[in-house]
């Protein structure tokens, strides 16, 4: 009888342990806070471009179509942005006919092939604190940029912040157009082009505003 009593007592003790007490204890603050999605405000955000060539440069802008910024606590941790390539404009040429010709060329297969690729996108993959930047940037942003259906990883410094239900980011990204199959006028591919060469890199200056 004593032999049967001890195993029975052990089984009773095991079943007396509640499921809750058997679970791993979670220390408050050990889990990451959930991210909140802030809506991009296209009417308050700007995206400008500058392209250089041997004999000068051109500049203009494009507009954001939509996007979201992911915020955790008081920090930007992610985001996705869609650019309306059909909104592309040239600002430095005032003569209407020449302006129209350049816009048409930028829209063509030589450059952004906009009829086939009406949008470009950028998805943030990481935001890393940055200290000591002379331009006031406080973060290094990394992400996936898609132009003409081709996706490449890029990184750039930026000034980012969250305050009063508004997330903001500003800075300048340098992009190598040849990585997106935009090779027109590139010395890297056409060595004998001389003073008609267009630089491989162009810059995009952005000011992004998103609201909770």
TrEMBL record:
**SMART domains, A to Z:** YceI (SM00867)
Question: Is the RNA-binding keyword given for this protein?
Answer: no
- Superkingdom per UniProt: Bacteria
List the Gene3D superfamilies hit by this protein, alphabetically: Lipid/polyisoprenoid-binding, YceI-like
Domain (Lipid/polyisoprenoid-binding YceI-like) spans 37-211
Q: Which UniProt keywords apply?
A: Signal
| UniProt signal peptide | 1-22
Instruction: Please name the PANTHER family in this protein's record.
Output: PROTEIN YCEI (PTHR34406:SF1)
Q: Know the name of this protein?
A: YceI family protein
Taxonomic source organism: Hymenobacter endophyticus
Identify the taxonomic lineage of the organism of origin. Bacteria, Pseudomonadati, Bacteroidota, Cytophagia, Cytophagales
């Amino acid at each position: 009888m004593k032999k049967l009593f001890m195993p029975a007592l052990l089984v009773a003790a095991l079943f007396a342990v509640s499921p809750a007490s058997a679970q791993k204890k979670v220390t408050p603050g050990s889990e990451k806070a959930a991210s909140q999605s802030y809506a991009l405000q296209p009417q308050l955000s700007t995206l400008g471009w500058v392209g250089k060539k041997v004999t000068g440069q051109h500049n203009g802008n494009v507009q954001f179509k939509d996007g979201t910024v992911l915020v955790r606590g008081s920090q930007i941790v992610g985001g996705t942005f869609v650019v309306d390539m059909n909104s592309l404009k040239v600002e430095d040429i005032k003569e209407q006919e020449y302006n129209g010709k350049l816009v048409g060329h930028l829209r063509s297969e030589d450059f952004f092939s906009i009829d086939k690729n009406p949008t470009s996108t950028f998805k943030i993959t990481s935001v890393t604190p940055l200290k000591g930047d002379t331009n006031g940037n406080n973060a290094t942003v990394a992400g996936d940029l898609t132009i003409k259906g081709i996706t490449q990883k890029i990184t750039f410094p930026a000034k980012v912040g969250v305050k009063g239900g508004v997330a903001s980011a500003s800075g300048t990204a340098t992009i190598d157009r040849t990585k997106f199959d935009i090779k027109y006028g590139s010395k890297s591919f056409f060595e004998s082009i001389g003073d008609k060469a267009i630089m491989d890199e162009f810059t995009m200056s952005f000011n992004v505003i998103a609201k909770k």
